[in-house]
Amino acid sequence: MNKSKPSSSEKLLAWYDRHRRELPWRARPGETPDAYAVWLSEVMLQQTTVASVSGYFSRFLQQWPRVENLAAAPVEAVMQAWAGLGYYSRARNLHACAQKIVAEHGGRFPREEAALRRLPGVGPYTAAAIAAIAFDAPAIVVDGNVERVVARLRALETPFPAAKKAIPALVAEIAPRRRPGDFAQAMMDLGATICTPRGPACVLCPLGEDCAARAAGAAEDFPRKAAKKPRPRRRGAVFFLRRADGAVLTRTRPPRGLLGGMEEFFGTDWRENAADDWDSPFSGVNWACAGEVDHVFTHFALKLVVFVGAAPRDAPTPPGGRWRAPGEMAVAALPTLMRKAERLALNFLAGAGLPDARISP
Question: Is 31 a catalytic site residue?
């Protein structure tokens, strides 16, 4: 009797058992996954690479090894630890979610997708990932890697993002009844290591025989993508003021909105048609232009002009501001954009002698 051919999921799981990635948050074979680690990693990995997340994940676990520890931490400390990882609403939601899990669930993560989705910052993808990976529930997990794998398997002609709606049902067609958590991680690993955006290693793919895009010799042509609209460009200015004792003036952004709750230097609004006659937030400062920094957000690109100035040791603290000592600046919750501005300002000041000035807000 001829044996039936293995299914796509069987081939994929066999490949995963041999080639699974070792990741800091991933349980080893035979170990029970830690829901806290799964949740933390999935939140961090939203629109962020594994390479960028690994160090942050390890530091978070060292500082807050259990969800109860994270819930009890000041939100400012969480934002500070998150600084540089981007998409800062994730950090605020992370802290709020930890508090809700402790207050309403006794420190235990819900096992059901519906209950997980009621937690702050946990959307459909994250809820499915936690349910499948942490609790081996039959949830359909779809991230960018999975979307690419399925689009090639089926040679989907519908361009993204319109094709996204069809992907979960196509994943469900090949998902196995057993080992849903391993299947979800196998699909992610396949997209990350074999079915890559460019130069996919089709000859090594366990699903090569099942792939319509490969059969057509057009793997790199999928997923189809709709033409991108030009990204708007905005401009603004930031004012880096350093006191004679080395302290630097910062403030905290509003808790909601872009970079909410993070620290920044005083500056202007960011506008699409901004003129170059920037208004300083302080009088009596001899400002010098250190140059410009570029930064790209999801919905717009920003060019920020950086001005530097010096203030005397007894300079007052303006409303909403704080003077950060040099040692404090190293650990302040500055987002990547402000770190760019800081580096430019410090490099400029290293070679410039700016006179002190009394300031008034």
Answer: no
